[in-house]
Amino acid sequence: MNNKKDLNLIKDEWTVEEPNEVLKFLFEKMSDRSKKSVKAMLSRGQVLVNGQSTTQFNDPLKPGDRVEIEKSTSKHHADIRGIEVLHEDDDIIVISKEAGLLSIATDSEDRFTAYRLLSNYLQTINPKTRIFIVHRLDKDTSGVMVFAKNQMVQKKLQDNWSDKAKERTYVALVEGYVGKSGTVTSYLSEDQSFKVHSSKDPKKGKKAITHYAPLNHTRGYTLLRVNLETGRKNQVRVHMSDIGHPVVGDKKYGAKSRIIKRLGLHAHAIALKHPSTGKVMRFEAKVPESLTRMFGKR
């Protein structure tokens, strides 16, 4: 067993009443789950005995021992450059990626991506592990990303992503003063140079709806909470440009300042309907200090 210094929230816990072994005990207590999934939780280090993680199926239990199941796994404490694992279960793995990290490979870069770094790390633990991307973030946008653990889950999520994703909240640092909340609706299309254009003509793109509300102001800048009804490429960036308040650092869509030396956009939260349980789960990535520093303490 290994000591666990920082435990996540506990999902289930029991007190042992008679001598047993870990795996047999779990089979008895979790009879509503498949033996395969119970073994997987044990192998991932989610099982704690008296506050210590174990992966050994035959570890002995004695009366009075406390057995707990973590909501998340020991992998979540991993140090992966540019990535923080927020949640993992049998179906999905949710991360927060840093700005500057590609989501997936491009023609010019296939190693330093969120997909490759996460995949490589997980395969050092279990060589059979595979992950499948569900949605992307721009390279210069930080925040929450969701990966599937198999292709069936990937398809299930992607087929109705707008329905499955109950919340997609961004925090955006934009140029200028935005004094009130609003909504932008337009039709977005991408040209051959990969720039997205906005039009009021339904024939000229896919419908995109963005809601925004000011969180804080300082001279020349506003921090916004942005909620998406649709998930189009560059949607937040284009719509902020549409209202005359481009995202800080976004030269592509009209920004003049780069005061924080990164794009001022962060995917703050996603709430989605879990592909197996149907329950709505919410995942949140802390807003980087670089986006809030200029406003002082809030």
From TrEMBL:
Supply one GO BP term. enzyme-directed rRNA pseudouridine synthesis
Q: Kindly state which reaction or reactions the protein catalyses.
A: a uridine in RNA = a pseudouridine in RNA
Quick check: keyword Isomerase in the entry?
yes
E.C. number, please? 5.4.99.-
Key words, A-Z: Isomerase, RNA-binding
Does the record carry RNA-binding as a key word? yes
* Annotated catalytic residues: 138
Q: Which residues form the Pseudouridine synthase RsuA/RluA-like domain?
A: 91-241
Name the PROSITE patterns for this protein: PSI_RLU, S4
Q: Which PANTHER family match?
A: MITOCHONDRIAL RNA PSEUDOURIDINE SYNTHASE, RIBOSOMAL LARGE SUBUNIT PSEUDOURIDINE SYNTHASE D
Query: What biological function has been recorded for the protein in this entry?
Result: Responsible for synthesis of pseudouridine from uracil.
Entry protein name: Pseudouridine synthase
Q: What is the organism field in this record?
A: Aliicoccus persicus
